[in-house]
Amino acid sequence: MDTVFEYVNYRHYLKDFLREAKRNKLPEYAHKVILNHLGTSSTGFLSNVIAGRKNLTSFQIRRMAQALKLNKTEEAYFDAMVHFTQAKVLDEKNEFFNRMVLVQKVKMKVLDKKKMTLFSKWYYVFVRELLNFHDFKDDTKVLARMIIPPIKPSEAKEAINFLEELGLIKKDARGFYRQTENAITSGDEVRSLDLARFQLETIDLAKRALQKIPSTERDLSVLTMTLSVESFKLIKSELQKMRKRFANIAVQEKNPDQVYQMNIQFFPVTRKKEPLL
Asked: Helices (DSSP H) in the chain: which residue ranges?
């Protein structure tokens, strides 16, 4: 069964948890034991909760977390997830969803100054991600063709050598190159010439995708808004949370079969309103 962090609806989590407990014949998770923790004798209570006919109170949320033997971090996520599921107002749902994202921290290795050179050429990043599912030993021709747009075999070999030198990939027991870190990041606010160059190059790749890749295989959209400085900062913060949420989805992926690039551009297109004299 998946961990609590892979659910956004606590009713689905409870249903799967109880099914798994029954399958493994775990008496400590019998309905009666959980009902005792919750302080209720109603045999149909859990069925009603899972079906959405009943909600959990704040007291029952804490007791349920104890019954499920969740640790502190898992309990905090479970608490936010219950409130998110049961919330009726959109603002409340957004608030508790943000709490879920904050609790569900993705363990990402922050790159040091030397490893930031990973971004010196756009295809270094893509080759590294490709090794997450592509079994590569020495056939650089196949590796080069798998990149969009294709790179030269000599560039693929150069990327492998560079990534291995930085310690970002290494050979496994079978001789295939694999990532040494599952998830890496430059951090939220990092200035680097290599990173800036990488961002510019991926913007060019997005232009190419608009022309070359079918709309069913991509998502390119725009949104123009009028904002205050305060709203700009709020949206920027939300984007950072969203990136971490997407990173977590990628980390939890069990059967990757393609590398995707997501670019998020958010910038002013007019000058600020001049203050009245």
From this structure: 10-23, 31-38, 45-51, 58-67, 72-86, 90-103, 122-130, 140-146, 153-166, 193-212, 229-252
Q: Which two tokens stand for residue 226?
A: 């009028």
Element (H, E) at 179: strand 177-179
Domain ranges of the chain: 4-103, 106-277
152 neighbors 144 (Cβ within 8 angstroms) = yes
Cα dihedral 42/48/50/56 (nearest 10): -70
Cα distance between residue 233 and residue 245, in whole Å: 19
- DSSP classification of residue 255: S
Enter the pTM of the model.
Answer: 0.56
State how far the Cα of 180 lies from the Cα of 182, in Å rounded to an integer.
7
Encode pLDDT of 243-271 as tens digits: 877 887 887 778 889 999 988 888 787 67
Look-up of token digits 């997830």: 81
DSSP conformation class of 272: P
Collapsed DSSP state (helix, strand, coil) of residue 170: strand
Tokens linked to 30: 């019998």
Q: How many residues does the chain have?
A: 277
For 38-45, the CB contacts below 8 A with 24+ separation are 38/63, 38/64, 38/67, 39/63
- Say whether the peptide bond before residue 153 is cis (omega within 30 degrees of 0): no
pLDDT in tens, 177-191: 998 876 666 665 555
